[in-house]
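User: quick one, fold this
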Amino acid sequence: MVDILHRVGVRTAAPEAVYDALTTVEGLAGWWTEGTAARGDAASPGGVVEFRFPPVGGFDMEVVEAKAPERLQWRVVDGPPEWVGTTIDWDLRQDGDWTIVLFAHRGWAEPVDFMHHCSTKWGSFLMSLKSLVENGDGAPAPRDVQISDWH
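Assistant:
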């Protein structure tokens, strides 16, 4: 198994502000994709968050763990075969004027071309999260940086 790992600092933001951007439909739509919806509570175990990226498809994530404002874990329950069964972990901590976001997309079966693409896109979207929390303006899909024909 292989993992995608990133670390991003969000300046002058309390962990609660970052956590809200990860656990509300409005927050998620502000940095990841405007095509975000939830079945149940996006901030509680058992809730499912639906992320759509027209025209290429999307993902459904079940909330596995939610410990405000320091930890969130999703399990991919629907989407591309490479993603189904993987987990996405968000660990947040305050460090002076920064909230440190430790991101992990864990459990890839192998480092296929699509994983390389997704690693770059995660980095791009993490910068969008940073911008949303710091400045109030993210770059969610479809306004995100296009890196290839996979979008």
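User: anything notable?
Assistant: The domain at 2-135 is CATH 3.30.530.20 (Alpha-D-Glucose-1,6-Bisphosphate; Chain A, domain 4).
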